[in-house]
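Shipment paperwork, digital attachment
Item: protein structure file
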Amino acid sequence: MSCVTVKDVPADKLIQAYAALLKKQGKITQPEWVDYAKTACFKELTPLNDDWFFIRCAAIARHIYLRGDVGIGALRKVYGGKTNPGTRPGHFRKGSGSVARKCVQALESVKVLRQSDNGGRRITNVGQRDLDRVAQEVAKQTQPEEE
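Attachment content:
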């Protein structure tokens, strides 16, 4: 398993492992408002997980790794969802732009992302190396033991 990339491992396990790495490194600090911020206008409550900011940063890093040249508007669309207005029909609403922006800025501050010439953000060599290394560790953990 010498050449394992982000595409080769399950997304949920990779995101959890990378979020734990970001938290352990201590380079990214959560903003003060994470305890009472909703992640979208159609949500009723704040996220239940205390580390949701690190998880969102890891998910954004994975998304930009796979797609490249992704802006805040595209991330708002990715994290959008359907409203629940009771008996009336639900409609799509975008996710929070502030949360997406702060996550991207935090990842730029640790040199995982950089601004692209075409607009949006792109993964750096450091970010790609970190994500591939985490993907390799996740692949080793999920690989069935051969005897």
